[in-house]
Design goal:
about 20% helix; Replication Fork Single-Stranded DNA Binding Protein; about 240 residues; 7-stranded antiparallel β-sheet; single chain; binds zinc ion; 7 strands
Length: about 240
Amino acid sequence: MAIQQTWEDVDMEEMGKEHASLGRGLPVLKLKVGTNIFRVLPARTGSGSKNPFVKFWVHGIGEGSSFRSFQCPYNTLGASCPVCDKVSALMRTGNEADRQAADRIKAKLEVYCNVIDMKDQDKGVQVLRCAEGTYRDLLGFMVPKSADEPAVNFTNPMTGMNVLIEREGEGKKTKYKTSLSRSGPKPLPDLSVLEKMHDLSKAVRAMPAEQVVALLEGRDTEFPAKQLEAGNGKVSSIADDPDLA
Ligand SMILES: [Zn+2]
């Protein structure tokens, strides 16, 4: 006799992916000096969005091993944010050092998308993190300029095209120039990568309000330290990356 199913059976494939994702951060790649060539992948099926880009407003506070980055509650949810309040207070003093301190901790836009590095395809699907300028350029390609220059969906797996990001210089003097490939539309070399895209909604985490306040007051010891990968130059946020800020 058939029984009426009153439960949702677990999706074993999803569980496997979840297991594989535990304990590992997203593979965020670092833009190299010179020409970087990417294929930007579309949104994942089931992500609830058709937008290939996931956007966060992020604060970064603290120095060295006590550096933390987290999603800004004000810009994300309209909820009160102790860091944004502090930024406003610092800006009001009219003091140059305070203005610089405010600039360091203010919320910055971080945008994430799944990409294939076309110069290093063996690495599989990686995550590109970009700041507002590059994001504006990328979106600009999706807007028609004239009848002769139509919008380009460079993310389509079959008819999309490569995106070039040229990086000039390092540190605070870094400049980025973004353009579309001159080789035109072509299919992704390996369509199976579409099954290996990362869940970008996990790129940035929220932080409990009391921890944010503790950080601002310089007493973060009651919270577990973020694991930093020392010495390899990796950063966890644009807020800590002068190249992208
Ligand atoms: Zn904020």
